[in-house]
Amino acid sequence: MQESVLVNKAESYLKEISKDPIVLDDIEDFENFKSLYFKLDDRLNKLQGFKDDMDAQGYTTPFTSLNKYGTKAVAEVAIDEMGESSRHNQIFRMKANAKKNILDRVKSSIDSHRIALGNLEQFGYVKCNSCYKKYSMSEYKQNEGKCSCGCEAFTFKVNKEATHRIEIIPHLPLSGNYMVLRSELSPYGRESLKQVLSILKQERKGVVKTISLVIRFRDKNKRLIRKNITLDSEFVNNYEEEVRRQYGRNVRIEALRFHRTKPAVIDDKHARTALALGYVKYAEEIIDEIKDEILKRKLSDFKRINKYDEIIEEYKNITPDFIDQYDLDAIEAWRKAQIEDNFKKLGYMDKFGNVTRSLRRDLKVRENIYKNTLKNVATALITWDIFKYYMTNSNNSRKIDIGPFPYIRVELDREQRKVFQITYNNVIQTLTDYTDIKMIPVNEMDLLLYEKFKFEKEIRNSNIKFNHVALGAALISQNSDIELSEISNAFNINESRVKKEIKNIDSIKNPKSDKSKKFLDLIKK
Question: What are the extents of the domains in the chain?
Fold first, then answer.
């Protein structure tokens, strides 16, 4: 496919996606759910095809061709050719920019579709009406809607225990329009976006990925050879032995460099951006629905503060005809005078230009509500969802299954767990009071994650079957003061299941019989 044709086709397809908004109405109806899942999955396959074609045509490094075909040094260009050369350089740069931009948008769109499909995959599954075998939606589509027993009749089930937040799907940059969505954010939304991205970009301690060496040795013909080589991270502690094994005992290392990688919690730029935008835009939607009710309860005069905003908004962009439009200071002074006159007439300001005490208090209260609560809604939501995802999914399922967080680390180290040290109690209380979202304030989530990862290592070779949602709830119950009923409610799981896993944890950590102790010693090895 020609380059210009590929760019045009990709742009046309992304535009087509942008004109088809996602609607989650009656999503619990199987036909609606299946239609949405199949549509997103088909889109993802087509987008992946575009990306593969772009990778094959060198879209990942579009500017390298300029060195070969485009720019020339000024000294190499004759005076009468300078105009022609400049025009050619501009054409090459425009083409390179077009390639870079379209590949960037396609990657963003791909990751957004993966996030959407991951949430839908967790949201529901189907069960065969004949043999009662369960299938994920990806398996159902792969099998073309037919069970292994031959039955084609299924019942759709919503998985209330799984971690998903399908409400973010309509807010994802599914058409790769992440720059447009960022520009549409409110001032507190932009602050919130920075916070969420900071969480998702939290890097672990540097790990050696490769080792670069410059070595000198003599070959079979006694010639002195200097060579650059690269070793994998497995040789970090014995690189000298490995070099001698390959090049002889008399080899000399002249230079040595360790290349370290610092993977983030979500180890992909486009996935981080898409997730952050999805959560922040969804949080803005929640805030728009609940902010008036919150302010009515917290402020002494809700109508007054609305009128206050209305007057400021009215004069914010007015430019009177009798003032020169370029005299910005005079325009600003006139606007300020008009606002103050209106405030004085309504009793919002005294004759000296001071805002009344009660209004000043209400403005301060509103600022604190936005600053300490509403701005942190998206951060609290995604922190809770990632925490719950780790606590309720096994190490293997985090490696294999399609989850709501593409490119998430299977396990977090101490540095990455630091983002879970903050508990957004005010936000959680607000969401509990004004919405149906289920969350509980869990102190020291980072230590609970450490306990979960440590326990996973202890049971690695065990044949005990755990209910991992109940296991996560049980670990929280054992390592916090939170009532079991609250934990069970937040995790949508029956208390009896959690109690069963508490017993399993006790039997693993505190074996009573000699037989149990020997068994545990074996699985730890």
Answer: 3-184, 207-261, 277-373, 375-524
